[in-house]
Each structure stands twice: as C-alpha cells, then as structure tokens.
Design goal:
With 258 residues, the chain is an alpha/beta fold. It is built from 11 helices and 7 strands. The longest helix is centred in the middle third of the chain and has 18 residues.
C-alpha cells in the first residue's frame, strides 16, 4: 500500500459519495486503488467496497446481544472495529502499489472522537496515513458555517496528527463567486473575521479575532480543495496532494488489467 486516505467529516457532507467517486477516478487515471468501508451502520453505499467491515460487525446482532438501542449499538460497533484491524491488514498485504480510500462512519463522533480511532489508524496504516476532512460547500458560504467546519477540522487534526486536506465537497451546488470568496477567507483570517461580524454582529469580536489568528499561526488556514463528487471536479488536486505525501510527488502508474 502506498498510503491510506481516511475520509472523515460530519454527516451529510457526502463522504461516501466522495470516497467512491475518488476511487473510480483513480482507476480511470490508471492508478491502482481500493476502497474500504469502516461504517458498520451503513444501510447503503454508493460504491462496492473491496473490504467491508459490515461482514464482521452487525448492528442488529449488537442490539440483540447487548440489549441496546440504535445509538448505543452504533457506539459499540465503532469501538469494535479495532478488533478487526488484523483482518484489514491482511486484506492490504497484497496491495503494495495501491492508494487505499477508507470511508469512515457517517457520524463524525463515531470515528474521530472514540478512543479506539487513533489505534485503528496506527495499526492499519501507521505513518502512511492521510486525512481528508470533507466540508459542505453550501454551509461554507456562510462565515459562521466555514468557521464551524474549520474548528471541526482542527479537532480532527488534534486527534490524529496526520497530514490533512480540507476538502469542500458539492461545489456544484454553489457559484464560482462563492468559491472565490471562501478562498479569500482561507487566505486572510482578517477578511473572514470581517465577513463573520457582518453576519453575526460585533459580539465577542476579540474572541474570534484571536481564534482565527490561532488558526493562521498553527497552519489550520492553509489551502482548500473544492471538489464535486458528481463530476470529479477537483480530484486531480486531491490526487496530487496524496502523491506528494505518499510518493514524493511522483505518479505511480501501476494499474494492471485483470
């Protein structure tokens, strides 16, 4: 395995659609790629996983065995994933030249904020790990929404301390002007703060200036990757960042026809 890209983010941002579309794009570009589903509670996936944790963990069985409701069973299932990291590692053994896309549970807290999550990443891929935080494009057009997603991005980084991309998905639902404005906010915390104050008023101004400045100084404000999983817009930039980290920027054209 060249490296594993863990796709994380809030529910509804299109993580699974992004994961499946990126996997298919990599294959079309003739790169070896595989996709893993780590969401035991997924009722539907827009792709056919190469490894599916649902083959080992059943929410129905957990609810029955532990007398739990849907929410409790989701938490237990998320923690059980670490028990199957050997199965995942076994699956990865023959994928020497592959990029592996790992689709994480739909609710961000079921992966990012469980104590087992860092152990899962360490056991499965170690230093060959990268995070793609998936943000929602329509929400990002509001300064408050953009800041909220940046704060979640920062929390994911603090949990895993791995290279990360801030991927804004569903850009086909917003205008080019919206994306240009978001890029301006990314480049200038001062402009973002001004836009936020226009939206919310002058309450707690000093707090948000300090917060955004901290983002800038800690490299949380770096670069955004606008993508559309619908038409694969922006996927080349995502791939380039993956290749830069996992392969020193070199293409690994190792695709083999079966």
């Amino acid at each position: 395995m060249l490296g594993a890209l863990y796709v994380v983010g809030p529910a509804g941002t299109g993580k699974s659609t992004f994961s499946g579309s990126l996997n298919e794009w990599l294959k079309r570009m003739e790169f070896d790629s595989a996709i893993i589903n780590l969401d035991p509670g997924a009722d539907y996936l827009p792709y056919e996983p190469d490894f599916d944790i649902r083959e080992y963990i059943s929410l129905d069985s957990i609810m029955s065995d532990y007398n739990l409701g849907p929410n409790g069973s989701q938490i237990v299932a998320a923690d059980m994933i670490v028990s199957y990291t050997d199965k995942i590692s076994e699956f990865l053994e023959d994928l020497d030249d592959y990029y592996v896309i790992i689709d994480t549970p739909g609710q961000i807290e079921l992966f990012t904020f469980r104590t087992s999550s860092t152990e899962i990443v360490e056991k499965v891929s170690g230093q060959r790990s990268m995070m793609a935080y998936i943000a929602d494009a329509p929400l990002s057009t509001y300064p408050s929404g953009f800041i909220a997603q940046k704060m979640l991005y920062a929390s994911v980084f603090s949990r895993f301390f791995r290279p990360m991309m801030f991927v804004i998905n569903k850009v086909d639902l917003v205008s080019d002007d919206d994306i240009r404005e978001i890029k301006k906010w990314e480049a200038s915390p001062d402009l973002l703060n001004e836009a936020f104050m226009d939206e919310k008023g002058q309450m707690e101004k000093d707090y948000f200036i300090g917060l955004l400045q901290a983002f800038k100084e800690s490299n949380i404000m770096t670069k955004i990757y606008p993508v559309s999983s619908k038409d694969s817009f922006g996927f080349e930039d995502v791939y380039s960042q993956m290749a830069l980290y996992f392969a020193g920027g070199e293409d690994n054209d190792t695709y083999k026809e079966e």
